[in-house]
């Protein structure tokens, strides 16, 4: 009797969790991703500010599953899926399956302003992080060569965890790491501005922690602009504000941290089972994470729209993706054995965001923490979630070095310049 074929599309948190749960359980698993590595996205901002090397937060998928003979890894970009015939079509081939787990993740959304993509890059991949790192460091080099005439203002568009963490990291870079390295400018004089159209940062956190995060950023020299959205942006300027009041910022280095939507693949899939896409272009799913009316296809992570018992949509964060990936894998195994699936229930263990050295906020198990306790909790949680012992060791060592020396060794501008 041949084994059931389970196809997992996406090697992010959800896909990785699903494959790990499926391996060794009597099914053959094929994992497809357009990249050859799993990326620990919560630490991308440290790559973007020179604190970590890209290899510290990524692991080759083939290496992760080297010893799993029932797992096949394929690098391909899936373009469409025929849910009726159970076949996925990629750029390089076609892949048949008995059960599908769709975990292709999300992509940066500019809310209808895709023309901003070049001037305000987002932070979703290693390429994004290294591009932002080049922008930040090149802006400082330009300021030095012009003897301060082009001193940059760093603008973070979005006050969620990414915007808050990037603002804090840039503040540490310019106020501490680069101290004394330039002769004609003082990087500490660069302005750092975080703008959000809402009435507080970290909108998904308790108000007390949002206020604490804003106070910590201000104490590091950042300007917090609430009720201010990004209205326009170019290579050397940004405009923030609302319909009544606008502010133009010259010499701006802008980072987009305001939105993520599901991958474009969801648009073609929704039409096949007659459903409308939900918020952020996400696919609606049943209580067991299956696509509505599709018996053998699950959707998890950033591209799945799932509402908790209180009727609130689950956020696109790693803990949600990991739990959904594991649950979808468990249900796929139950289908292979002819058993009924079980509904998914998310267990919220809390959320946390780091602002800087010894500064963080955390809402864990009903406890609201700030300062060093939250920072230490953040360090521990992120270390244990990294894939591979080597990466954990390297990141722990680098963090210790950065902490005691206030240095960031990965401050490299690697793009080739002809002029």
Strand content: 25-35%
Oligomer: single chain
| Backbone structural class | alpha/beta
Widest beta sheet: strand line-up: 5-2-1-9-20
Using only C-alpha atoms, the radius of gyration works out to 22 Å
Give a quick account of the main beta sheet: strands, pairing sense, barrel closure.
5 strands, parallel
Low-confidence stretches: none
Query: What is the typical, i.e. mean, pLDDT?
Result: 92
State the helicity in percent bands. 25-40%
Q: Based on DSSP secondary structure assignment, what is the total number of beta strands?
A: 24
What is the global morphology? globular
Question: Characteristics of this structure?
Answer:
10 helices, 31% helix, 419 residues, alpha/beta
Give your account of this protein's structure.
The mean pLDDT is 92. Helix 1 (13-22) packs parallel to helix 8 (318-336). With 419 residues, the protein is α/β, with parallel strands linked by helices. It has helices spanning 13-22, 44-48, 61-64, 126-145, 161-177, 207-219, 265-272, 318-336, 371-385, 389-405, and strands at residues 4-9, 27-33, 37-39, 58-60, 71-75, 78-82, 87-90, 94-96, 99-102, 106-108, 153-157, 191-196, 222-226, 229-234, 237-241, 246-250, 252-256, 260-262, 283-284, 297-299, 304-305, 351-356, 359-364, 367-370. The protein is globular, with a radius of gyration of 22 Å. A hairpin with a 3-residue loop joins strand 7 (87-90) and strand 8. The protein has ten helices and 24 strands. It is 31% helix and 25% strand. Strands 5-2-1-9-20 form a five-stranded parallel sheet, covered by helices on one side. A four-stranded parallel sheet has the order 13-12-11-17.
């Amino acid at each position: 009797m041949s084994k059931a074929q389970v196809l997992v599309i996406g090697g992010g948190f959800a896909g990785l969790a699903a494959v790990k749960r499926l391996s060794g359980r009597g099914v053959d698993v094929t994992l497809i991703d357009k990249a050859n590595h799993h990326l620990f996205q919560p630490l991308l901002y440290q790559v973007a500010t020179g604190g970590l090397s890209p290899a510290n937060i990524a692991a080759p998928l083939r290496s992760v599953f080297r010893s799993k003979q029932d797992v096949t890894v394929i690098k391909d970009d899936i373009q469409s899926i025929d849910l009726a015939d159970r076949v996925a079509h990629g750029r390089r081939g076609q892949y048949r399956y008995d059960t599908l787990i769709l975990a292709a993740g999300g992509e940066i959304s500019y809310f209808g302003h895709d023309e901003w993509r070049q001037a305000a890059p987002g932070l979703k991949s290693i390429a994004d992080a290294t591009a932002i790192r080049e922008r930040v460091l090149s802006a400082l080099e330009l300021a030095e060569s012009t003897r301060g005439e082009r001193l940059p203002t760093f603008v973070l568009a979005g006050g969620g965890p990414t915007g808050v963490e990037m603002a804090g990291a840039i503040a540490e870079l310019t106020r501490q790491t680069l101290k004394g390295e330039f002769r004609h400018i003082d990087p500490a004089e660069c302005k750092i501005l975080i703008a959000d159209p809402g009435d507080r940062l970290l909108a998904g956190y308790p108000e007390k922690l949002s206020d604490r995060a804003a106070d910590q950023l201000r104490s590091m020299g950042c300007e917090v602009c609430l009720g201010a959205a990004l209205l326009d942006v170019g290579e050397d300027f940004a405009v923030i504000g609302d319909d009544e009041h606008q502010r133009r910022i010259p010499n701006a280095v802008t980072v987009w941290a305001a939105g993520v939507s599901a991958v474009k693949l969801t648009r073609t899939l929704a039409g096949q089972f007659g459903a409308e896409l939900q918020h952020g272009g996400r696919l609606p799913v049943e209580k067991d994470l299956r696509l509505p009316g599709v018996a053998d296809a699950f959707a998890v992570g950033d591209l799945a729209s799932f509402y908790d018992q209180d009727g609130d949509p689950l956020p696109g964060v790693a803990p949600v993706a990991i739990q959904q990936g594991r649950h979808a894998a468990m249900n796929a195994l139950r289908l292979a054995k002819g058993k009924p699936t079980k509904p998914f229930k998310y267990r919220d263990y809390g959320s946390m965001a780091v602002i800087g050295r010894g500064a963080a906020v955390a809402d864990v198990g009903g406890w609201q923490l700030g300062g060093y306790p939250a920072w230490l909790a953040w360090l521990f949680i992120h270390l244990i979630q990294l894939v591979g012992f080597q990466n954990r060791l390297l990141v722990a060592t680098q963090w210790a070095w950065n902490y005691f020396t206030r240095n960031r060794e990965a401050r490299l501008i690697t793009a080739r310049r002809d002029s």
